[in-house]
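Exam revision sheet. Question 4 asks you to relate a sequence to its structure. Input first:
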Amino acid sequence: MNIVLAAINAKYIHSNLAVYSLRAYAQQYKDEIQIAEYTINQQIDDILMDLYKKKPDILCFSCYIWNLSYVEELVRELGKIFPSVPIWVGGPEVSYDTKDVLERLPEVTGVIFGEGEKTFLEVVEYYHGKDMQLSEIKGIAYRGEEGEFLQNSWREVMDLSEVPFVYHDMADFKNKIIYYESSRGCPFSCSYCLSSIDKCLRFRKLELVEKELQFFIDEEVPQVKFVDRTFNCNHKHAIAIWKYIKEHDKGITNFHFEVAADLLNEEELKLIESMRPGLIQLEIGVQSTNEQTIREIRRTMRFEEVARIVQRINQGENVHQHLDLIAGLPYENLERFEQSFDDVYSMRPDQLQLGFLKVLKGSKNVSKRQRIWHCIHRYSAV
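Answer key, structure tokens:
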């Protein structure tokens, strides 16, 4: 059987951790699973031709905000090219409106929603003829024999330490950003963010994390980006990792972390100050400096403390700081957004990233007015 996991990335330098995790978890079928990565900048016809040459028996797509319209266009054409090939979609952009997805895309066989590793494995086993029915697989939506919409129950969250390490031959990732996760879930409730839905915060065992980080260090990987939603929400976990990479540093690998600056404690700050320049970089979400806006989006952020911490880290001149803002949040018109921009710019970050609000499917509704925002343009200013 030839199973193709397709990922449409935003840029060539990106890689899709999700599809590699799916293949790694279904390791007994690894030789049957191909990963095909493309970008939204490629021509649709070129991708169709490449997928046609792969002759898939099952075709799966990973769906995100930046690629959904592109994936939908591909799926409609692939339904004509491979009318008998099952097409499955998964990912955050299709997990919370499964019925609409199946109604909108008759070419799609089913949707894998929620965490996908165990579900994908069971779907593969189903097509291999294992004695099971689709109705027994948690975490999928599909059509019944009469074409009716069916959705099974959500799958329980998994132990993150059960997911195999996906990186082995780094030649496959030459000139690519390497993504890594040591935790899933988020303790906060920001209403614009899907991470606020998963309150079951899970951490990968530190002995596994240290072994895997050593692999990156030994392979002299230029940069590893942690995709943990709030890396420092567990101080014991964060400081253990930071101590490890400092003690085993070879002067080459840079590690990127998304952190809540106002949660950084004195021990963590002193450790950060002792690191070599370029060992880590920090991405800090500010989003707005308007207190009314922060309350409305259910965000926990003390701006004065964030500003103090950012200034202190700046004084060390050894850590690249990347600060984020969101335009289009409630109670923040253009004039008030200018104030937020000026507040953050005055903190002199190395990079300032602006995202326009997109209310993600499944996230808490900020306001009906914000539903019109469907753009995700980003730019940076130094």
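Marking note for examiners. The chain is about 30% helix and 20% strand.
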